[in-house]
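Exercise 7. Predict the structure of Glycolipid transfer protein domain-containing protein from Aureobasidium subglaciale.
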Amino acid sequence: MAAAYPPGGTFFDTLKRSFSDVPVESGKIATSEFLEAAESLTTLFDVLGSAAFKPIKSDMVGNIKKIRERQLAAPIESENLQDLVRNELKTKKHTATEGLVWLNRALDFTAQALRQNLTNNNEEVSVSFRAAYGNTLSKHHSFLIKPVFSAAMSATPYRKDFYAKLGDDQARVEKELGTWLTGLEQIVKNLNDFLATKEAKW
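Solution. The predicted structure, encoded as tokens:
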């Protein structure tokens, strides 16, 4: 897989947009750039390589679609995510808002799993993903959904194989993963804070 990148290149070179490049003004997250970064993140599940990750990826893609449909329906009112939510809720609908809640949970799960794995350099990817699932998505999932995610956690590649798939130059892979994660974590925190407020509830 690493051979698909230019010499010395990494998975992060293939992303249309990184979360660290999503404009945030006065706490408001630009909608179009956020959706591009979220779509780029879903390709990471292809690198993880197992069919077990397909439900996770398709769930995220479905939620991105809900947000984008609202943005296309009311572009002026949806330039940033916070305004998109406020304006959608005024119409007594919450399809995109609910999509954003679930998408942010999945982003939080991914961020926590990869941060834990990057920090603990002897830990297998499956251990980090399982811990992150317990901290994030599992409390929102029914007993029917949990086994699907459990299967995905068990299907993660070995640590050395996963990082090799991200690029040949491991020092560069770890540096770029760290930068990308910091951008993702900041966006997730911003959204967690906003989605916990009364104005984001339906």
